[in-house]
Amino acid sequence: MTLRLPAEWEEQDGVLLAWPHEESDWLPWLPMVEIVFAQIIKEITRFETALVVAADAERTAAILTAVGARMERVRLFEIPSNDTWARDFGPITIKRDGAPVLLDYGFNGWGLKFASDRDNLITRRLFHDGAFGGIPLETVGLILEGGSIESDGEGTVLTTAECLLHPNRNPHLCRGEIEEALRSRLGAGHLLWLENGYLAGDDTDSHVDTLARLAPDDTIVYVRCDDAADEHYTPLFLMEKELKSFRTREGKPYRLIPLPWPRACFDEEGTRLPATYANFLVINGAVLVPTYDDPADEAALATVGQAYPGREIIGIDCRPLVLQHGSLHCVTMQIPKGVLTP
């Protein structure tokens, strides 16, 4: 039996999102965050299907229609949710002997920080509502969030020790047992552990998708802080040293592409927010990149373009998203080719 966790840049059927609603933590900023979600979905539907979980499908459809989303590529499901972080409660799709299988890992609100009872059921409810046709769904007795792992589609998985070894995720498992679980379920034969790196204001315990991203041709796009006075300077410098020490399956160093560092971003109470350009989403023919009305935005778009030549690089203003300590990749989960029903 062969197991493979597809890379994000492989062909997709669609992207899963969960629409924000007034019973979520988005209530104070709901109108402006709905605009961000609508813009993301509008861009996705230029290239592929948007699978959208919403509390009020009719209202959501009206907003998407108004912004010009291609509604023939929008599939709405009325399913209750706690929040909108589809990256972490959505299905993780593997290929088993070449055929897709959906893995439904447990989601416990990033180590019991937030309510997650509804979110933890979304994948199974989508399955029962026919979103995935005859593709098998397997529930896995392990807490694992999609934002905590990066795959190159060929057996390499990049992750962080801070997240996967967190005592409120899987306290019954040691590092070796977690590695075996990743190998046996995801086909992760080449594991790269980051021991350093974090973003202030991040609730996820250093999800790798905020820090470093695997890209085609043995490339890693990563966050680098050039301001020696910034609290991130030392931990991100140490993370960069780790990345330089990593080797591919063939024993070669990775091509490393550093992202620019945005200005510090704060909420109304003075809490620093985790604005990061690493939280981009790769889709068919394009890459959606978060921007923050920052002087570094254009450089960030150009940098991502270096890793994904030939794709359209599209900036999305994600300032509203970081108010809840996440960004563009966090609110999306790609669905690989062969999963969605026509």
From TrEMBL:
SUPFAM superfamilies, A to Z: Pentein
Top-level taxonomic group: Bacteria
The entry's keywords: Hydrolase
InterPro entries the record matches: Peptidyl-Arg-deiminase_porph
GO biological process, one term: putrescine biosynthetic process
Molecular functions per Gene Ontology: agmatine deiminase activity; protein-arginine deiminase activity
Pfam family, one: PAD_porph
PANTHER family associated with the record: AGMATINE DEIMINASE-RELATED (PTHR31377)
Name assigned to this protein: Agmatine deiminase
Protein species of origin: Geobacter pickeringii
